[in-house]
Design brief:
The chain is an alpha/beta fold and about 400 residues long. It folds into three domains: about 170 residues, P-loop containing nucleotide triphosphate hydrolases (Rossmann fold, 3-Layer(aba) Sandwich), CATH 3.40.50.300; about 80 residues, Helicase, Ruva Protein, domain 3, CATH 1.10.8; about 110 residues, Winged helix-like DNA-binding domain superfamily/Winged helix DNA-binding domain (Arc Repressor Mutant, subunit A), CATH 1.10.10. Helices cover about 50% and strands about 10% of the residues. The protein is built from 17 helices and eight strands. The protein binds adenosine-5'-triphosphate (ATP) and magnesium ion. Belongs to the CDC6/cdc18 family. Keywords: ATP-binding, Cell cycle, Cell division, DNA replication, Nucleotide-binding. This is ORC1-type DNA replication protein. One of its GO terms (biological process) is cell division.
Length: about 400
């Protein structure tokens, strides 16, 4: 193995929470201020706040940092429960996650959301517990289960039991537009407390990369120029906002750095070279997140894999028809020993994945007969997507 590159590769993985979060002091302060009374005098108040910002702007990592602060500042009296709604898309699944995190033995079946809610409230009242619940990527819950699912969770906090309000709520989303879909009462109760996470500029991305590189890489494995090169790709250019519509994403930048480091290691290079960065940029997923893919059902993953395979084979055209995708999907189902889903179901999957930006769809163009849906994946590297989805399918099937 090439020992020249990594000191601690873990510091470049997506879930790693670094010691310091440069450029997010203000957001962290605001969180502490909003929730201050709940943390100091649990039960005295029900706090609701919202965090919004583009992908990779540090919302999840900042919320987790805030979580550690909550536990310390409340001297362990207030728990912090982080729930990924990309993975838990129904109020039942969210409540179950909250229950488990609070140490409640959650019954496996035969319970409705309402009963589970009662159970949780009883349990925290008996045990005199308080918690801040962070619903991350709340858009998924809304999209999948509708506004009533949020209502149910907001109600969890409104309940005044024993010594007061047991829960406070932090909603996290990429844009404020999700609030328009909420029921009116909930929307107005969220009104004031919105914390914004602006996209990172090139200079900020550079600083973030430098901090991570110091932890993850040997000093001799990189130069500041290499990190600048990555910042240019991933950071917002203050001079040219329009061109930067997709940028400011620290996850993208860190992922490129990790892939470039791996390529250097693989090629037995003593340090990361510009060519490694170029190749890494081509391999890195941009608009699609790994945990969004994990959240797909098995058959959505199989269909996505079919679409990726077919697109890779038909390299002269950017689109494939839904019929072609179905043929490929049936072959893949056979390969994995799965019973294929029906056409109407697959159609729903395509719409669902398109609404989440994993796919693009369009209806057949002028001069073509009939109305067929065509599918493409214009911005993501297919090979990387294939590898990611394939390993998730295998994991889902338990091998
Ligand atoms: N200020 C920062 N300092 C150091 N690392 C950061 C900072 N902001 C983000 N990161 C890192 O960038 C990656 C993406 O951040 P995070 O997951 O918090 O983004 P997000 O806003 O939740 O994005 P999404 O909307 O896609 O979920 C993580 O690995 C995180 O540790
Ligand atoms: Mg996030």
């Amino acid at each position: 193995m090439n020992m020249a590159i990594f000191k601690n590769e873990g510091a470049l993985t997506p879930d790693y929470v670094p010691d310091k979060l440069p450029f997010r002091d203000d957001q962290l302060k605001l969180l502490q201020t909003y929730f201050d009374s709940f943390i100091r005098m649990p039960g005295s108040i029900y706090v609701k706040a919202v965090m919004v910002g583009r992908s990779g702007s540090g919302k999840t990592v900042t919320s987790k940092k805030f979580g550690s602060y909550v536990r310390v500042a409340s001297k362990g009296r207030v728990e912090f429960v982080h729930v990924s709604c990309a993975l838990h898309r129904t109020s039942f699944s969210v409540l179950k996650t909250i229950g488990l995190a609070l140490g409640l033995p959650v019954p496996r079946r035969g319970f409705s959301s309402e009963e589970l809610l009662e159970l949780i409230l009883d349990d925290v009242t008996t045990k005199d517990k308080y918690a801040i619940i962070a619903l991350d990527d709340v858009f998924y819950l809304l999209n999948y289960s509708g506004p009533d699912a949020i209502d149910a969770l907001v109600r969890l906090g409104e309940e005044y039991s024993g010594k007061g309000y047991r829960f406070s709520l932090l909603l996290i989303s990429q844009s404020e537009s999700f609030m328009d879909q909420l029921n009116r009462g909930v929307k107005s109760s969220l009104g004031g407390a919105v914390i914004e996470f602006p996209p990172y500029t090139k200079d900020q991305i550079f600083e973030i990369l430098l901090n991570r590189a110091r932890e993850a890489l040997k000093d001799s494995a990189y130069t500041e120029e290499i990190l600048e090169m990555i910042s240019d790709v991933a950071g917002v250019d203050p001079e040219d906002q329009a061109k930067s519509a997709m940028r400011g994403d620290a996850r993208y930048a860190l992922d490129i750095l990790w892939r470039a480091s791996k390529l250097a290691e693989l090629n037995a290079s003593p340090r990361i070279m510009p060519s490694h960065v170029r190749e890494a940029v081509m391999q890195t997923l941009h608009g699609v997140r790994e945990d969004e893919l994990i959240g797909l059902s098995l058959h959505e993953k199989l269909l996505l894999l079919a679409i990726v395979n077919r697109l890779m084979r038909s390299s002269d055209t950017p689109y494939i028809s839904i019929g072609d995708a179905e043929d490929e999907y049936e072959m893949i189902c056979e390969q994995y020993g799965q019973e294929p889903r029906k056409h109407t179901q697959l159609w729903d999957y395509v719409k669902d994945m398109a609404s989440r930006g994993i796919l693009e769809t369009r209806l057949s163009g002028k001069g073509m007969r009939g109305r067929t849906t065509f599918i493409s994946i214009p911005t993501e590297p297919l090979e990387t997507m294939k590898q990611a989805v394939e390993s998730m399918v295998k994991r889902d099937l338990g091998d």
